[in-house]
């Protein structure tokens, strides 16, 4: 992940105000980290996200080192926050548009 993100990159840990963050360097060095590109306005994404969340919770409950980072393709911060509030994983802040575009 250090090749994709800077180690001090801040990730959101929840979609509620005030937003809580963690540094990328706080994540375990072992295990799997998935990048989830999705958007509030995308019907297939809206259908898939709950299924992914179920799997995410089951994998984490089984003690596996697994994390997902949501990279939003939403049109604005409010849509991003509304959608992220439904998700149990981390997210790249919406304001990091340049980094998100680079990763796309």
Question: What would you say this structure looks like, in words?
Answer:
This protein has 104 residues and is of the alpha/beta class. 33% of the residues lie in helices and 21% in strands. The chain is built from 3 helices and 5 strands, in the order E-E-E-H-E-H-E-H. The strands form 2 sheets. It has a 3-stranded parallel β-sheet, covered by helices on one side. It has a two-stranded antiparallel ribbon with strand order 1-2. It is globular, with a radius of gyration of 13 Å.
The SS-based structural class is: alpha/beta
Measured as a percent range, the helix fraction is 25-40%
Q: Would you tell me the overall average pLDDT?
A: 89
Largest sheet: 3 strands, parallel
Give the helix tally.
3
Q: What is the strand content?
A: 15-25%
What would you report as the Rg, rounded to the nearest angstrom?
13 Å
Q: Which sequence of SSEs, written as H and E, runs from N to C?
A: EEEHEHEH
Low-pLDDT stretches: none
What is the 3D form? globular
| Strand order in space, largest sheet | 3-4-5
- What is the straight-line distance between the termini? 15 Å
The number of E-state strands comes to 5
Could you outline the blueprint of secondary structure elements for this entry?
Blueprint lengths: L9 E3 L8 E3 L8 E7 L4 H19 L4 E7 L4 H8 L5 E2 L5 H7 L1
Parallel strand pairs: 3-4, 4-5
Antiparallel strand pairs: 1-2
Task: List the defining traits of the structure above.
single chain; 104 residues; alpha/beta; 3-stranded parallel beta sheet; 33% helix
State the gist of this model.
The chain has 104 residues and is α/β, with parallel strands linked by helices. Helix content is 33%, strand content 21%.
